[in-house]
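Case study.
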Amino acid sequence: MALDRTLPGIQSLKHVVVLMMENRSFDHMLGALKATNPNIDGLSGTESNPDTTGANITVQPLAAYQSQLDPDPNHHFAAVNLQIFNSTQHGPPLPATMQGFIASYFNQQQNVAHSQEILYYFTPDKLPVLTTLANQYAVFNRWFASIPGPTICNRAFAHYGTSFGQVSMDVFYEGKDIQAIYPRLLAAGHTCKLFYYDEASSTMEVVNLLQNESAIFGTFNDFLNACKQNALPDYCFIEPNYTDHPAPDGSGEAIACDQHPDHDVRAGEQFIAQVYNAIRLNPALWPNTAMLLVYDEHGGIYDHVPPPACTPDSPFVAQPADTGTLDPFAFDRLGVRVPAILISPWVAAGTVINETFDHASIPATVTEFLQLPAANRSARELAANTFLGNLTLTAMRTDDECPSFVVQPAGS
Amino acid sequence: MDPVPVPAPPRSAYNPNRRVSDLLYNQLKHFQHVELKRGDLGIDAEIARNIHTEGGAAKYIAAVTTALRGKAPSTSAPPAGLAVITRAKLSKKPPAGTTLAIAASAAKTTAASRKRPAKKAAEKPDMGKK
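After joint prediction, the assembly is written out as follows.
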């Protein structure tokens, strides 16, 4: 369905901001919200997986901020295949039972008790930012990782609408004929930035974008300054801090805030809050900006919703040598579900969106909204649903109706 | 609507000596690829060698990123309220048992590497071990 440009929220819209976090599944972070909003397709508490002794293990609200998902749960293609299909060898036509998460995690340490923790999820009180945003804005019930695999190829879909046939982390796609959304925007006279946290964290977009389009990059400080100066680009993508490291300017020590295991989830909550506040607390930006908070993939962590089929990303096919299973992969089914929230004063509180999305929806949405001229785009991007049509309120929510956050300092 | 408080992680959550994850390992490989392809970006060999931990990897990534962007590292202070912990520097001793690919510039500049072929990429971190 074409974007309704008569919507007041669309007529006001000037900036689209995407923040992509790391490696947490929908049920793990938002599943508990089903209890307070039955429209959210979360957990009833009866969902389960068998462990390696044959015992039926149910999900538990016992997720911890840190030191629980160590070792990092395997989220490469073959492991995710096991998680979804309970098979290390084949995918469809086997049914997607979502019963292999404990078995997959057991493979890493052969510890029965520890393997069960892959089914743990957060109670809402432990995630005040994510919970508030999910309750106050629009939750996507059906936002999936673009492929059942790891970070870099999934993030590629957010930038390019494709991973150029890659299902692994070895995504070297120099010289390909599909451009990222950033040069497409620039060619059409729009502004865009890819903000990484700082130079020491940098970007996952090293090989192609950082070395060839270095001018599109900025730091998180640059993002905050752009917000303060009302100079936000038409489109920007924000990456969190991927490591614990001394701040490059010598001012202190920057804690990883990507929420990738085993980084403390609270640091990511603070980071999300800071991005949100920078927009929300600027009266010149808030009415004109839509923010998408999304996670790149599920990190090997349990979710109960089988990923659906999708338009194949023709002509790309990954061979068994790349998938690690006995099957090739035609990019014709999505990865596991991830948390995704659309944030705008033009979205009603408690909204739940049920259409299917994946990260190709990001360049598709930006292209549609800014009416970019025809370009070579992937089959997946061309087929992807777009999300700005959910800015449906006829009147903008008042200041009192929209939350804000107080980020408490370390050591408090 | 009252502002919602967002607690910070404890200081103990910060660990720059944490072994690099699979994600970071692959990011490092990409940086090595770019460093090799672009020629000598002037990366300090010592920095290029010490990439076993998050802190060490971050230094190398900062060096290459800065070189690619052609400017000095950001000198502006981090925003107020960010989880930046100011405390005594931690031990720089890398965790035992880690192996990682030696970065391109380190392989080039050691005397030994001038006499023998460049080292093979080290095996990936064992995801199953603590």
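Observations recorded in class. DSSP finds five helices and two strands in chain B. The longest helix of chain B spans residues 22-38. We will return to this complex in the next lecture.
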